[in-house]
Write a structure and sequence with these properties.
13 helices, seven-stranded mixed sheet, single chain, alpha/beta
């Protein structure tokens, strides 16, 4: 009999894995790690996931919605014979990201990444016999993120993954237009993330409403101080581009080589798709200054930038110029403090007290409580912080808009801490009778729907 099982994620944020099984074939959507600091308290720990999901049955295919660790992070534990699928740009990002992570891992993951298959937005594909999948590109704080429309056993299932519509990609009702084009008519089941259901109080407090508002506020903040240290995810390109365009005239926009490689990988993809804007050096389009000594990767980066139709200009960062003109620096925590001092720490220690500020553009949960990231906290070191971040996840009104657009027979919330309260949220009350709350590991017979 066909069934649906949320192996993990029915009542928690992150660490997700969902199975759609039609008896002879199955797909798994995401195979994520628990969020930092939560594994010990989790009902299913990361080390138990592969045994729980695969056991002695090493079949099916795994589809990743995007490259955030709580959705792909356990990819090393997937049995070697199980095919994996991910978006093409997401795979390119992992080619940069995973070797960086591999430094502290016994199991190296880059060879696994190279074997991943890719799918493409708007094209149906059949990862296993009897199950068809249509990837649909969505707005999220990770590039190349997707929701999946799945056809299996005569049912149509829409699986949102992480999504939103208040970023750069989500403007002008893009979600609604894509769904109307590719998923016409009602669906049998909507499986939706609900991250923000427990974080609504953060909007307007530590969160700004949209990426556009983030850029507007960033421009004002950068004008107040000469030396700006921005703590932002290296793969959150929406926010990074807002910071780039908000850099005041005459001030340097600075990152390291790792970050620069991610930037140019994203820009090349945009150019291939014909979506690359004009990035000529000007008040709004400064040269990107790169920290570190020149090497073969730096030469390659410059060569690629120069070959692009609309070049993205990179030059070496010189401390004298940074000191004289000021900067907006994309900084990162140092996860290996006993081994080396990062260039971000060096610049912080030299310039912060003179006229600097730290701008924190990530989830505040990483600064306290069970999700606290000690390396981030150590970088801040008790210094004052300006919070300037917008969520990568859908607001309540966006989820309501999604439900109205696809008119599902059943609604299953996941990736949320408020699954039991979903149907009581005012925006969702009119669909109360359609909401079905699942428990981790308990299959739902699709034929009963």
């Amino acid at each position: 009999m066909p069934d649906l099982t949320i192996h993990r994620g029915s009542h928690q944020i992150g660490g997700c894995c969902t199975e759609i099984n039609i008896g002879d074939s199955r797909i798994l959507i995401d195979f994520g790690a628990n969020l930092p600091g939560t594994d010990e308290a989790s009902e299913t720990k990361d080390n138990d996931m592969a045994r729980r999901v695969f056991g002695s049955c090493q079949d099916g295919a795994v589809l990743f919605t995007h490259y955030h660790g709580d959705h792909y992070g356990l990819f090393r534990k997937i049995p070697a014979g199980v095919p994996m699928y991910i978006g093409p740009l997401a795979k390119d990002i992992l080619r940069i990201l995973v070797p960086y992570i591999d430094r502290d891992e016994q199991e190296k993951g880059i060879s696994i990444v190279e074997k991943m298959n890719t799918y493409h937005a708007g094209r149906w594909f059949t990862p296993v016999s009897g199950i068809e999948v249509l990837p649909l590109y969505v707005d999220h704080s990770a590039l190349d993120s997707y929701m999946f429309c799945v056809r299996a056993a005569g049912k149509t299932i829409l699986f949102t993954g992480d999504f939103r519509e208040h970023g750069i990609v989500g403007q002008w009702n893009r979600m609604e237009r894509v769904l109307n084009k590719y998923v016409p008519g009602p669906v049998d089941m909507l499986i939706t993330e609900g991250t923000m259901l427990s974080r609504e109080g953060e909007i307007g407090h530590t969160l700004v409403k949209s990426e556009q508002e983030l850029g507007e506020k960033a421009e004002k903040l950068f004008q107040k101080h000469k030396y700006n240290f921005v703590l932002v995810s290296s793969t959150n390109l929406d926010s990074i581009m807002e910071f780039y365009h908000s850099t005041p005239e005459g001030m340097h926009f600075v990152c390291d080589l790792y970050q620069a490689r991610i930037l140019i990988t994203a820009m090349r993809d945009m150019e291939r798709k014909g979506k690359f804007p004009e990035y000529q050096p000007s008040k709004k389009h400064p040269v990107v200054r790169v920290l570190g000594r020149g090497d073969s990767r730096w030469a390659e980066l410059q060569a690629i930038g120069n070959m692009m139709e609309n070049p993205l200009y990179f030059k070496a960062a010189r401390e004298k110029g940074l000191e004289q003109d000021g900067f907006v620096l994309l900084a990162r925590k140092n996860a290996r403090p006993g081994i080396y001092t990062s260039p971000f720490e060096t610049l912080r220690d030299k310039f912060f007290e003179r006229d600097g500020q730290i701008i924190y553009s990530m989830w505040t949960g990483y600064l306290k409580g069970e999700h606290a990231d000690k390396a981030l906290i150590r970088f801040i070191g008790g210094r004052p912080v300006e919070f300037l971040h917008t969520s990568g996840h859908a607001y309540v009104e966006t989820i309501a808009k999604l439900i109205e657009t696809v008119d599902p027979k059943w609604i299953i919330p996941m990736h949320t801490e408020r699954a039991e309260e979903f149907s009581a949220i005012p925006e969702f009350v009119r669909w109360k009778s359609r909401v079905k709350v699942l428990k981790d590991g308990r299959p739902l017979d699709l034929d009963t729907l």
